[in-house]
Amino acid sequence: MSSLFDRLGGAAAVDAAVDRFYDRVLADDRIRHFFDGVDMPRQRQHQKAFLTYAFGGAGQYGGGALRESHAPLVARGLNDEHFDAVVEDLGLTLKELGVPDDLIGEVTLVTETVREDLLGR
User: Fold this and answer.
1) CA–CA separation, 59 vs 38, rounded Å?
2) Domain membership of residue 45 as a residue range
């Protein structure tokens, strides 16, 4: 069976999704404040690498541990509501790009596997 990465359309699809996703996130009043002062071109590249790995498109990920990298955001109040907003924005982005619902569901399942670490629990 092919990887989720491949079924989504590979690198070009992940690149397009991440770019549109961050456009949506930066317009989302629920979560955009967490990105104040963030180098967004770097953040976009980092997210593309992470999702490529998470969706089975790369064997390694060199971006660091989620718990440690998100600890400053948790200290600023990042919680389940914010995580849910991110998941919602990602799903809406994928829907906008024409990704079928079953693949969006798989993406959501993968995303949920990092909730506890990302929120420092």
Assistant:
1) 27
2) 4-118
Amino acid at 75: A
- For residues 78 and 29, what is the distance between their CA atoms, to the nearest angstrom? 14
pLDDT in tens, 54-68: 999 986 665 568 889
pLDDT of residue 64: 62
d(CA 70, CA 118): 6
Which ranges of 61-118 does DSSP label H, i.e. alpha helix? 66-75, 80-96, 101-112, 115-118
CATH number of the domain residue 34 falls in = 1.10.490.10
DSSP 40: H
